[in-house]
Structures are given as C-alpha cells and as structure tokens.
Write a structure and sequence with these properties.
Strand order of the largest sheet: 5-6-8-12-13-14-15-16-17
Keywords: Leucine-rich repeat, Repeat
Number of helices: 12
Low-confidence stretches: 1-8
Pfam families: LRR_3, NB-ARC, WHD_ROQ1
Protein name: Disease resistance protein (TIR-NBS-LRR class)
GO molecular function, one term: ADP binding
CATH class of one domain: Mainly Alpha
CATH architecture of one domain: Orthogonal Bundle
Helix content: 25-40%
C-alpha cells in the first residue's frame, strides 16, 4: 500500500515520497477529481519514469487543462437513457427497478437529468423513501428552477472561474446559447477569444460542428439560477433579465438599477407594454437590450407593442445590442451614442431617422430596419468599417442609400422607394447579395454593378 498512514496531506508527501515507495514497482495509480495539474507534478515529479514496466497512472478531472501532458485522454460520454435510469433507480430505490406507481415519474426525472451522472445521483438520493406526492411536487419545482444540490454540485467548475470568465459564462447561459460563435465573439468583445477555450475545457460549453455555442440544459439552468440568486425578490437588482414576468415587473414599477446589464423580453406574451420615458435612466450599465416579438409579423405590423408617452429617454452608451421590434418613437433615444453598438435591429419600427452626421461605429455589424415604413433616410455609414449586413426591405419611404462600409456582404433594399443606386455600390467587393426587387421608383442602375 502506498498510503499506510491513516491521514496524509499532499503537502506532506511530495515526489520523493512516491519515488521511495514505488521505485521500479509495477503500479496502478488513480487520482480522482484533480483540479490543478500542479498537484500531479508535486506528487509525481518528473513523471512515471521511476515506476516499473507496465505501470499506469489514471487521472479524473472536470478540467481538460489538467491533461496537457497526458499520453491519452478519454472523454466520458453522456449516459444513455437506460444507463441513466439504472443509476437513478439505484439511488432512488436502492435497486435496479422502480416502485411500480413511480415508474413514469422516474422516467421524467431521468429525462430532466439528461445523462449527467451527478444530477441522477443527487436527485435520486433526494427522492429516496419519499411519497408519490413529494415526487410530483419535486418535479414541478425543478421544472421552474433546478434542485439546489444539483446547482451546488455543477457549480464547482463555475466557482473556479475568475470574474470576467464568470460574466461571459452567464452571458452565454442567459442569452447566447445556440448562437454562432462569430456572433457571440462580436457581442462579448475580444476577451472572449481567451475565455471560450477555458469554458470548453471545464465542460461548461461546447462548440458544435456548425460553429454554434452549445450548453447542456442543466448547466444553463445552473447559470440562470446563479443570476436569480443575485436578488431573489427584486428582479431589478439582478444583472441579467430574460423572464417576461420579471422584466414586466421591473418596467411597470420602474425598479431597474445599475446592476442590470442585459434585458430580453418577448413582447408577444403581453398585449401592451407601458414604459415611462425614464425607464432606462437608472440602468447605466445596460449592454444588451432585446425587445423582440415572436408573434405574427404581417406587413410590418406586430400584434403587440410597447406604449410610451413622451419618447425614449437616455439609454446606456455601453449598449452592444439594441433590438426593439416595433420601436414606438420617431427618434432614437436622447443623446444615444452608438459607438459600442454591434447590432441594431428595429423591425417594423416607427423611426424616421437614426442619428445625425457621420458617427464612428467601429463595432457595428448589423442593421435591420425591415418594414420601418416611416424611415426617410439613413446616415452616412462610411465610418462603420465592420458593417456586413443591412436590411431595409419594406422601408417604403426610403429614397436614398448612402455611402457604406466596404465590408458589406448583404444589402436588402427590396420594396423601398429608392430612385438610384449610388455608384459607390460598385466598390463593395465583398457584396454577395443586393436585393432591389419591387423597387418601383428605381430609374437608374449603374452599369458597373449589372
């Protein structure tokens, strides 16, 4: 035996201890749940050179970075349904098969855990010996918010992140799961290029074959629960808001604070949303504002909309996403500075102009003002070097399109009142799509783009 002593701390061992005990012996060493490769280096020193032929060292960890010097890495796959059911039953019933009247509930619990052994063990152990009514109550509760013990267990990897890494993980969990990697990088800034590999190594996120950021449902729920616990009672004191009920409460009662960084609201879930003109004045750190409408969009009109009496007051200059379907005002918010803006989406808006003059827009990639029927003009976009996508289809009062970024990939002017396509469009060498269909006022199309 390597450790004959009843209690030994790693600090008391060291590589010389291992070498003295195991020199030239054939051994199998197993290190479980290692979270820092330095622990292995301290114990093994230069490696397994001192061990006998045929020796093996096995290590388990949640962090792929621990295996930087490993000869071979085996990634444990997600358990299939039958394996999951067996593990759950062993913890919930202390046998392979469930109690008959709990069979269907057992399956629903297993579906919820989605192949994560730790969740299956925690939930199964919690339900052991409980009544059917308690099982049903537990299922209702975890469908609203994850079980506390599951959150605490999954949270171990999250707790090891630094402040910026935690913030990016929460942004992804709350808002960007399923989005393309390029979009997420644009939205969250340059630092995310360093953070994404860290989150992947800790199995907090993954990247799919089609380059989308993916996150396991339970890991995502853990992230949402972390945000909820920032202020269990008052949503306006949380950093991120995505639940329609919570956003509605905050806007109705004007309880937003400087803690709020991100808001997402599906307006289709409300007949009307009433805002005060100072609704965002108390949110100076707001980075993402998304008022979208998942309901019918017929000829530029949504079935529900935001009502506001005196126009939109000031909004944060930190905004990177301004997405407001059916935007109710003729003008952009007072003193709005779009320098940090990455996406501007205002489908079916009432706006007739954006900002005055030539603005420096180094981050802007997307403009979508589709069916903004009051829009009469677009500002000069020559200082938006990264602009790639512009959709102005259905802007029936728009007669001119200005100079724009040379990186433009898509320009949709379908159903506009444009009279002439500027010759500068011919210089857009990266343009892959130019839609001028149903432009009935179009009288001149320069030969250089034909």
């Amino acid at each position: 035996m390597l450790l004959v002593e009843k209690s030994l701390r790693i600090g008391s061992l060291g590589s010389t201890f291992v070498e003295e005990r195991l020199r030239r012996k054939k051994v199998l060493l197993v290190f479980d749940n290692v979270d820092d490769s330095s622990q292995l280096e301290y114990l093994l020193g230069s490696g397994d050179a001192c061990f006998g032929s045929g020796s093996r060292v096995m290590v388990t960890s949640r962090d792929r970075r621990v295996f930087a010097k490993a000869d071979e890495i085996y990634e444990v796959p997600k358990m299939n349904f039958q394996e999951s059911l067996q593990l759950f039953n062993l913890n919930a019933f202390k046998q392979d098969n469930p109690v008959e009247d709990l069979r269907e509930l057992s399956k629903r619990m297993v579906y919820y855990c989605d192949g994560i052994p730790l969740a299956l063990k925690v939930l199964g152990s919690f339900l052991y010996g409980r009544s059917k009514e308690e099982w049903e109550s537990c299922l209702r509760n975890i469908e609203k918010a994850p079980h506390k013990k599951i959150v605490n267990a999954l949270k171990l990897s999250y707790d090891g992140l630094d402040y910026k890494e935690k913030a990016i993980f929460l942004d992804i969990a709350c808002f960007f799961a399923g989005d393309l990697v390029d979009k997420v990088k644009a939205m969250l800034g340059e630092f995310i290029t360093v953070v994404i590999p860290v989150l992947i190594d800790l199995s907090l996120i993954s990247i799919s074959q089609d380059k989308k950021v993916e996150i396991h449902d339970l890991i995502k729920e853990m992230g949402l629960e972390i945000v909820r616990q920032q202020s269990p009672i008052e949503p306006g004191k949380r950093s991120r808001l995505w639940c329609s009920k919570d956003v509605g409460h905050m806007l109705k009662n004007n309880t937003g604070t400087d803690a709020v960084e991100c808001i997402s609201l599906d307006m289709y879930k409300f007949k009307e949303v009433h805002l005060s003109d100072a609704a965002f004045a108390r949110m100076p750190n707001l980075r993402f504002l998304k008022f979208y409408n998942s309901g019918p969009f017929s000829n530029g009109i949504y079935s529900s909309e935001v009502k506001i009496s005196h126009g939109i007051g000031s909004v944060s200059d930190k905004l990177r996403l301004f997405h407001w379907d059916g935007y109710p005002s003729r003008y952009m918010p007072v003193h709005f500075c779009p320098e940090n803006l990455v996406e501007l989406v205002m489908r079916g808006s009432h706006v007739d102009q954006l900002w005055d003059g030539v603005q420096y827009l180094p981050n802007l990639r997307t403009i979508n003002l589709r069916y903004s029927k009051h829009l009469t003009g677009i500002p000069n976009l020559s200082r938006a070097p990264n602009l790639q996508y512009v959709n102005l289809s259905g802007c029936s009062k728009l007669k001119e399109f200005p100079v724009t970024s040379t990186n433009l990939d898509v320009l949709d002017l379908c159903k506009t009142a444009i009279v002439e396509v500027p010759s500068s469009v011919a210089t857009l060498t990266k343009l892959s799509k130019l839609d001028l269909s149903y432009c009935e006022s179009l009288t001149n199309l320069t030969s250089s783009i034909c």
